[in-house]
Amino acid sequence: RRWRKGQPLLPWHSSSQMVAVLRRPTRERDAVTDAAVEEPPKPEAAAEDSFATAKHSICTALGVVMAVHFYSAYVQNTALIGADGLVPCAAYVKERVKTGSFWTWPCVWWWIEPTDANLDAVALTGLANALLLTVGAHYSHLVAICWLCHSSIVNAAEASSFYSYGWETQLLETAFLTIFLCSPTDRRAPPTRIVLWLFRWLAFRISVGAGLIKVRGGSCWERKTCLWYHFETQPIPSPLSFFFHFLPKAILSRGVDIDLIVQLYASWLVLVPLRNVRRVAGYAQIAFMLNIAASGNFSVLNHLTILPSLACLDDKAWPRCLRRAPTKKRRNLGRRMTDVVLLLVIAYLSRPVVANLVSKNQVMNTSFDPFKLVNTYGAFGSVGEGRYEPVV
User: Fold this and answer.
1) Fewer CB under 10 Å: which end of the chain, C or N?
2) pLDDT tens across 56-113, in order?
């Protein structure tokens, strides 16, 4: 209809209806505006920035490894270093206590004597705390107790060679770092970046040290013949050792190449601050250790060596079924300062270890400080071609 003068603007609506029609768009615009200025929800912690799964796995696996060690000590220490053992430790411990202090020889023998009962008590105390770690009680004071018990056993046996294979000091260094990976009050506290990098530094030193001792040691690594007899002469045979030993020699020679590539070259990648490179390095070290563990029984050495490499894997690098829920909690200023002090201490103690790595006279499985916090490692600098065992 055509509008005539004097008629309402909208003759088919009342005034109230006209106001409603005019106001509705206004309310809708206000709603859109409010939604536009509303702050977006904060995203959850990215899986790439969380290492909750790595921390959980390191603590749990360390508990398993230490439980094996303590149970073994409980079963055999009386026969090895007890009062009527092969190499009794009481006289040696008594001399050390006279001439030193806890800070030069950390152990519990400053307060108790190394009797057979006390040797068993130390092993059982360590075993109990290791089992608590295994079931998820990831607290720093439990790891510290395990460390002290293991240090006491290793130091008591110094007069013998029963605890001088290298993995004893490696276990002490790994356990010491795990003390700072955990919290004394919160088992789900997130790991700090500094401690994760110190684990990677340990993984690097273990791998590159083993590679360097090979190229500087036996000539069979140059001839690429070591694996022709390694599986027969070196480890306690595993169910698969027979299979590995009878592989074609061409394949075993290529195995030497893979060994040196992983230990001498891929080990450097764990120190690269790029996520994908670090993941590949972690996978390579873990796969290599699993292969060695399958080919022969070296006790828990290979399982223990896997632990520091787990620090290369953020939560997204793990299968979904294994991932742990990340926590939003952050460490306080005191803890961050503690980590800085720890970093400086490890850096200072690493000086002789680095000097040993670059030396032509490299030695393996050696400690340069009484607490055995930073050590040298290596294995199979030479590989014997024969296997000799005593017949009793």
Assistant:
1) C
2) 999 999 999 999 999 999 999 999 999 999 999 999 999 999 988 999 999 999 999 9
Name the pTM for this structure.
0.85
